[in-house]
């Protein structure tokens, strides 16, 4: 019995990942920095991406609740989402802080790697 519950939870998490990853890509695409943007605008992009990542931390629980909504009905979806709100708030604050802290160094690392390997 335990194995069946574990495999069902894994399947639901996989379905949630199929919902979340396209949501990230669709949200992020309009904010990609065009090549040749001045360094003064990097700060603006840092703030934009930090807000996007923080907001996504808030919506993560709602997006993960969609499979529970479909498989268990509205009560299960809402219960799953509401029970995860404290985690979503921590997720939001952590995403925002990490993005503000690491944005400049990670973009430098990625651009250097891109120019070397591509």
What does this structure look like?
This protein is mainly alpha-helical and 118 residues long. 87% of the residues lie in helices and 0% in strands. It is built from four helices and no strands. α2 (40-72) crosses α3 (74-83). The radius of gyration is 18 Å and the shape is elongated. It starts with a helix and ends with a helix. The mean pLDDT is 77.
Element pattern in H and E: HHHH
Name the quaternary structure. single chain
State the helicity in percent bands. over 70%
Shape: elongated
Low-confidence stretches: none
Largest sheet composition: none
**Which structural category fits the helices and strands?**
mainly alpha
Number of helical stretches of at least 4 residues: 4
Integer average pLDDT: 77
| Cα-to-Cα separation, first versus last residue | 50 Å
Give the radius of gyration.
18 Å
Instruction: Estimate what percentage of residues fall within beta strands.
Output: under 5%
Tell me the total number of β-strands.
0
């Amino acid at each position: 019995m335990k194995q069946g519950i574990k495999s069902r939870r894994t399947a639901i998490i996989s379905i949630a990942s199929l919902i979340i990853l396209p949501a990230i890509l669709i949200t992020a695409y309009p904010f990609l920095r065009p090549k040749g943007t001045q360094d003064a605008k990097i700060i603006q992009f840092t703030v934009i991406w930090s807000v996007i990542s923080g907001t996504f931390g808030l919506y993560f629980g709602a997006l993960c609740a969609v499979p529970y909504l479909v498989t268990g009905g509205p009560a299960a979806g809402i219960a799953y989402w509401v029970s995860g709100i404290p985690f979503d708030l921590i997720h939001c604050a952590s995403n925002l802080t990490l993005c503000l802290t690491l944005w400049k160094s990670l973009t430098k690392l990625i651009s250097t790697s891109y120019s070397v390997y591509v």
